[in-house]
Amino acid sequence: TTRATYTLKDxxxxxxxxxxxxxxxxxxxxxxxxxxxxxxxxxxTGQCMLVRxxxxxxxxxxxxxxDALFIGTDDQHFVGLRPDGSELVVGExxxxxxxxxxxxxxxxxxxxxxxxxxxxxxxxMFSILGVIPESPTAKAQVVLxxxxxxxxxxxxxxxxxKDEFPIQxxxxxxxxxxxxxxxxxxxxLGRALLVSEHLSLLRSIDLFVPSSSSSNTITSLFWAxxxxxxxxxxxxxxxxxxxxxxxxxxxxxxxxxxxxLLPDRILFCTGSLGKTRMYDRPISLLEPLVMGxxxxxxxxxxxxxxxxxxxxxxxxxxTRFDRQRISSTLVx
Length: 332
What we know:
The protein is mostly beta strands. It is 13% helix and 41% strand.
């Protein structure tokens, strides 16, 4: 399918900076509804631009949106967060691009700092993750919001530490196994949390030691199968659902973030002094992928899953990836 091509300069040229904005217009966040061929770009001006990249091309600029996401089985719904955190803007993406006005949902009794997707969303009954900011009487928390006539918090929540908030939430979901999903949450304090789809805390990965000058913090997360890859100041590591971890590579750049994965190499992004560059490193993925499959099956996979499916999965991995670089840990 032919898609339109946009540069960030093209997008920023459509958005007008308000008179109160002294800095230049630049994107703060970009999210995509891949199945609908739509992207949402959040700018530092508090404006959101919806762009349909498939033909016919369509654009829509909305004011007073500080965060956004697409939800539904086909990414057919748009959800935006107002600057004061007390209202959600919800509408069908296609109709909004055609000029229809979205609905406004007022949050009762709480405000949100940011919003994220959940692994299972379909139809009009969907849920999202919201971050309730820290207050003088309570710490920040990640909550599950379910929509009925309005959005309401469920009893599912992940409490955070003082001055802590999420900066990245990634989900891994294998629908072919009809099993539970697992999520990775990276916080501004360099801590990673492994959580279930119902927001039960499974593992907390915290490498920071206050008394040590060589402590590492986690800088990025990336799912490879059921293995959570993450970067620290000095290494690329892998975390598994049973709480175990392994070191895969030493890193010589700082800061470093994972931005992609190929069958035989991993893509990193690093930058300093205003310059950003991407580079790749060769890596053997067989061991972390198989370890992820085995530990997830043992710890979290539902009993309805066919044990033979696990054997098939492991066999596919072994036949696809390089088998020369494995350790005794995998053999055991």
